[in-house]
Amino acid sequence: MNAITPAALLARIDSPADLRKLSRDQLGTLARELRDYVLQSVSRTGGHLSSNLGTVELTIALHYVFNTPHDRLVWDVGHQTYPHKILTGRRDRMDTLRQLGGISGFPRRDESEYDTFGTAHSSTSISAALGMATAAQQKGEKRHAVAIIGDGAMTAGMAFEALNNAGMSHAGKVPSLLVVLNDNDMSISPPVGALNKYLARLMSGKFYASAREGAKNVLKNAPPLFELARRFEEHAKGMVVPGTMFEEFGFEYVGPIDGHDLDSLIPTLENLRDKPGAQFLHVVTKKGYGYKLSEADPVKYHGPTPFDPAIGIQKPATPPKQSFTQVFGEWLCDMAEADDKLVAITPAMREGSGMVEFHKRFPSRYFDVGIAEQHAVTFAGGLACEGLKPVVAIYSTFLQRAYDQLIHDIALQNLPVTFALDRAGLVGADGATHAGAYDIAYLRCIPNMGVLTPADENECRMALTTAHRRNHPVAVRYPRGAGAGVATDGKLDELPWGKGEVRRRGERIAILAFGTMLYPALTAAERLGCTVANMRFAKPLDVELIAELARTHDSLVTVEEGCLPGGAGSAVMEALQAADLHNPVFSLGLPDVFIEHGDPAKLLSMNGLDADGIARAIAQRFGARPALIRAKS
Questions:
Q1: Cβ distance 299 to 188 under 8 Å?
Q2: Residues marked as catalytic
Q3: Helices 157-166 and 125-139 meet at what angle, rounded to 10?
Q4: Is 492 a domain residue?
Q5: pLDDT higher at 172 or 418
Q6: Which domain holds residue 571?
Q7: According to the model, what pLDDT value does residue 210 have?
Q8: Domain final position from 477, 510, 542
Q9: Tally of structural domains, the chain
Q10: Are residues 413 and 507 in the same domain?
Q11: Which of residues 533 and 241 earns the better pLDDT score?
Q12: What percent of the chain has pLDDT over 70?
């Protein structure tokens, strides 16, 4: 892919030091050039668009005012940092964004000194920046720490835990910390909750603004009355603006100001830079700003694949295969029709989890709790206590954030909550931060939990039905994108609980496949003459099937798209040990490293989890050519 040629002013910016050499009058031109470069770049590579178009001016202002990287910028979530990457020496690598060997779509400490803290999950910025500010205070260093957090990320409890700590003095001093609230009235899905409604009322308060200006005009010729009104306004404002809330945490609140107006941003940031203690700046931006199609539909343009910016995102000429996410969305609606006790919960991932149709059809049974995974899980527990059947639709990587709640609030009480774990296994372009590599390992060790690993689309539907009808917590894990292309039958049939199936009979070696690894395992087995079992359950394991295969085969091979330490392969070895069976077990899965971003098929191949890799690994491990271990006809 040929690199995009930057416009004249942007071409001169290889670091924030170059940016700070520009005059204030040049910054508006730079913003237009930078926004166009982001649009052209993302339209070629795919990636996050709406969020990055909305942070162009804010990024310029922050790097212009603060002496980065000496001063620390911590971006929350980090999917809005493309302008930051472009201004910090990575402009000419944007054509490698989110590709194997290329730059990440999120901040990474090992990628640039300007990425002061690695992020990709939300609501961590204030905690991290506070740690940096406190460290500077401890070491006697004069540096600033700035957390940039979106209004969606402010719904998470962790953000408020950090705010509460930030306003406290330590040894009589409050660290110098600036929190910038980037209020764009959006996370990924439309935001929810009382905090958002509070901020929204303020932003839409045209009556308040016009009345204030009218009163000024009336009273300006009567100075005593004007001063009295000013004092009254300060008192009244404290009852309605969010500054009151943040000031109660010990912050000095400033705002709201227009986050696309450099003439407001820069002097305000300069003033705050020179103030000690905890500062809070509220800026208002618009997702997709400057590109009308993205402004009109920021959700659609949140994370597009490559497209032509002149015409926008178009539907593909050939409809893609049904994804597992779509399978879940259809099942959720069908099961809701059949069971009026079903309720569905998402932590701000309505679109990503395939719940748009359910929200339309069953609005009173749909709960978006915001980016608050811990609350989502315990909320589901409360619903289950009262006889409802909650389904928590959550990405595998995000359930990690609610592990304590999963154990103590769900499993310990043995509550019937279904966890629909999307994005299990490798996720491709989002990389290690979003990979669902650990769910089998972290779930199977919890008492009362069931863990299902369906092999294809129709089996996923059956697995979800099976989970929903159990009277204890069950997780169903499925990957991003499409599977083998097995059409769903529209039924609500169950799988036999804890039972796998033999899909191919061979000799000497039995492959135990978990989840979508079944299909490459079948292809490999055709070459090698192996038996293949579709295990379906990581917990409870089908120990009878495992024992039968162990007694009739020399060796067992386990295959999973999950981490090897503590994973399904480990479970099989534990089961053999308990049964006093001593067959050699060879486990294939994801190694004990964080796997980078890249094309999912390529990543699976690199880790030996495609058909060729499975066949090659088995042949090498057992010291035989495929022809020598092929089953007899």
A1: yes
A2: 287, 373, 401
A3: 20
A4: no
A5: 418
A6: 501-629
A7: 46
A8: 477
A9: 3
A10: no
A11: 533
A12: 88
